[in-house]
Amino acid sequence: MSALPLRSPPPFEAAAMRVPDLTEVIAVEYQAYPVPWTHGNFVDSLVADYPAEVLRGPRAELLGYWVAMPGVDEMHLLNITVVPAWQGHGLAVVMLDRLVAECRHRGLPQLWLEVRVGNARAREVYLRYGFAEVGRRRAYYPVPQGAREDAILMSLAVAV
Questions:
Q1: CA angle, corner 6, sides to 27 and 88, nearest 5?
Q2: What are the distances in angstroms from CA 84 to CA 46, 58, 88, 95?
Q3: DSSP 95-121
Q4: Which pLDDT score is estimated for 6?
Q5: Which is it for strands 110-116 and 148-157: parallel, antiparallel or unpaired?
Q6: Residue 69 to residue 112: CA distance in whole angstroms
Q7: Which residue in 16, 41, 59, 102 has its CB near the most CB atoms, within 10 A?
Q8: pLDDT score recorded for residue 66
Q9: Which domain holds residue 131?
Q10: What is the pLDDT of residue 159?
Q11: What ranges in the chain are assigned the alpha helix state H?
């Protein structure tokens, strides 16, 4: 399966994620992931003032969202999700572009993320975007029935 967008991104508006967005965000988490983030995970990120955005379409429908954590000389992407019905439209790249712009704005030259070993589509998107696979975190992600899945650690140098 190609990670290249199958269609052009729809018209969208980006806005800072707010607590009122979380009802829709949590609904998407449960559609998109076998072990989704909790409401508390998102609230904690917002209270900590982590950069987080939602993308909305022309009818204010949720298209996707991301949350990242700034650190010393780096940004760590914690969650990036495209609403399943909108996957294949290039929205992941749109959100990555916005996140890289946030890194530049903050003067953070390195962007990090983890991705499930089994998520080949996302890994391909990240590789095509320019991320490099730099490590592996054993048993990092929970999966249903108590098992664990490895994560691939990926990094992107950001020109600031």
A1: 15
A2: 23, 17, 9, 15
A3: HHHHHHHHHHHHT--EEEEEEETT-HH
A4: 58
A5: antiparallel
A6: 10
A7: 102
A8: 98
A9: 13-157
A10: 95
A11: 22-32, 39-47, 91-106, 120-129
How far from chain centre, in Å, is Cα 56?
A: 15
Is residue 4 in a domain?
A: no
In a domain, 124, yes or no: yes
Q: Any idea how long the chain is?
A: 160
What are the structure tokens assigned to 109, written together?
A: 């030259």
Three-state DSSP at 80 gives strand
Q: What is the pLDDT of residues 23-70, one digit of tens each?
A: 999 999 999 998 999 999 999 999 999 999 999 999 999 999 999 999
Structural domain count, the chain: 1
Written as six digits, the tokens of 40 are: 């508390």
- Return the CATH number at 126: 3.40.630.30
Is 66 among the domain residues? yes
- The whole-angstrom separation of Cα 151 and Cα 16 is 28
Q: Which residues of the chain have pLDDT under 70?
A: 1-6
Residue 40 belongs to some domain of the structure: yes
CB 9 within 8 A of CB 89: yes
